[in-house]
Write a structure and sequence with these properties.
mainly alpha; 5% strand
Amino acid sequence: MYKEDILGSCAHAAMLGKQGIIPQADAELIIATLKDILDDIEEGTVTFDEKAEDIHMNIETILISRIGDVGKRLHTGRSRNDQVALDIRMYLKEQITDIKGLVKELIIVLNNIAEKNVNTVMPGYTHLQNAQPVTLAHHFLAYVEMFKRDYDRLTDTYKRTNVMPLGSGALAATTYPLDREFVKEKLGFESITLDSMDGVSDRDFVIELLSALSMIMMHLSRFCEEIIIWNSQQYKFVEMDDAYSTGSSIMPQKKNPDMAELIRGKTGRVYGHLMAMLTVMKGIPLAYNKDMQEDKEGVFDAVDTLKMCLPVFTRMVDTMTFNKDGMRQAARKGFMNATDAADWLVKQGVPFRDAHAIIGQLVLYSINNNKNLDELTLDEYKSVSPVFTDEIYNAIDLDTCVNARIVDGGPSEKYIKKLIETNKKIIENM
């Protein structure tokens, strides 16, 4: 967090000079030197000293080595407690913004795939059992909804991270006439912490971010699980691009969905950081305690994991090839149109429970005779109920099954096109 530490120190020094707490000339020299140190760090010409304990003391030590006693004035009116609280908030604000951008890119890709597959019929499942026909667009847009919520959660987390704690001191503020609003504006924060004890000991925003990141990973993992299943020989719904799959070291016929499996596996890693941070914080009395130093490693790793997984997943999905014919054929199996057949009977005046029983008899008959419902003759239908007419065949056609579901939220072409356009407008405002 060298950049955040230096920028925070520059704002603090500017405030000290403005308030007359230190001479203005000293403040300007401190700021200029800190900026030089920042440039040197980014150019790789600075060597950090492990004996200086942490990044904060390293930078202050370098500052003092360059400008002497003037550098010792920098820490006036602040504690390492509020300094580190400031740095982690500044760092996470930037990371949240980056992750929001990655989530947005994924939403765009998924929405575009949906737009190209509004009429791509595929099986819909419950309990991983054949349920009702849907479309690939309908399926992908379900994940768009998940990632839209994730984006909103990150926005909410950012709001509570965007609070400036500097000026809280060790726990009880300071006797110096600090201008916290000045520092807030200088660093681009929305507000300041209102209680100095909370200002140095709050890590809710870290836990909240870890929770939001865990949710994103959970959604990625669910999607990866489906891609792994769809990529199997039993399904053959998708083919992975070679860049996101590998062969077996011994079985030449295999194409393993390694990237999807790795993302699924890394989900547990992020969950672990969330649980660790909750556990660290659960028994800490006010105010600051050294336990809170444990927040850095976990949240850094969780952020790095997300920033690695999201773009890989986005490109993996964007380069997948869909077996549309295979999906449609799979939707013809397993009597996915049985509910539509029952609904047709209801529309002819048959009570739903009776209609349910009639179609149940037909499904059993079809299983025993190795047929699908659309392969039964009209006589076979009438042998179970005289209500049937040849209109039943249109009612159980897969496209009819999908497009007759015109209720908002359903898979019909009309609604899905509307939702895709709605998503485009939402994306424009992200």
